[in-house]
Amino acid sequence: MAATNGGGGGPGPVPVPGPISAEAEAALGEAIRLVFGRWTALQMAVENQWGGRDSRAKADQFGESILFWFCRTKGPRYFEDLVDMMYDKISESFNADFEDNSVEEVAEQLLIIHEECLQNNYSSIEKLRNSHVQGNAVSQSRQIVADDDDDSDSSDDGDDTSMMDDQEAAPEDMAVDRPRPPRPTPDADGWTVVPPRRGGRTRN
């Protein structure tokens, strides 16, 4: 089933574009890397090696897959298709399911930036370059469920919570120039993180 944004779905399909220029493709690749570097849930998966020792390489491959989807696939590009592909890659690479709506947020941002790149408009990418990353965060991860076989040790849970407390600073919104609704203020314990657990959890 296609994942949809909580607001009833994301943007409509991006019209079938002409061939993307080499300049625009390079700019879009940079934008994906910049957005991923500010994606709290993904950075937690990398830092905690949810995908194993090569978690960083898997995150890079994830970004390359998205760039390929934008630049090499034919036909209109639907928000739901991008979201589904991202969830599949996250599950495959990190054995995890991000349940904080950050996948939908990132997908929407990338669709907007891709459309701007087709028009040789790189203003959003320039804002990303110039924005200051506080901690790791842009999207505030409220709950991340990583699929694992058994319930994790309480000591691991404590380590993750401590790490989030150390990294937490007032996160910026995703750097695309549009208003965003206010987020609830994190409590004293920071984000709620459900540590890895093994088991065949599937995304509806």
Topology:
Blueprint: H1 22-37, H2 40-47, H3 55-72, H4 79-94, E1 96-98, H5 102-118, H6 123-130, E2 144-147, H7 154-167, E3 194-197
Parallel strand pairs: 2-3
Antiparallel strand pairs: 1-2
Mean pLDDT: 73
Shape: globular
Structural class: mainly alpha
Order of helices and strands: HHHHEHHEHE
Distance between the termini: 7 Å
The profile of the biggest β sheet is: 3 strands, mixed
Binned strand content: 5-15%
Description:
- This protein is mostly helical and 204 residues long.
- It has a domain at 28-132.
- The chain contains 7 helices and 3 strands.
- It has helices at residues 22-37, 40-47, 55-72, 79-94, 102-118, 123-130, 154-167; strands spanning 96-98, 144-147, 194-197.
- It has a 3-stranded mixed beta sheet.
- α4 (79-94) crosses α5 (102-118).
- The longest helix has 18 residues, at 55-72.
- The protein is globular.
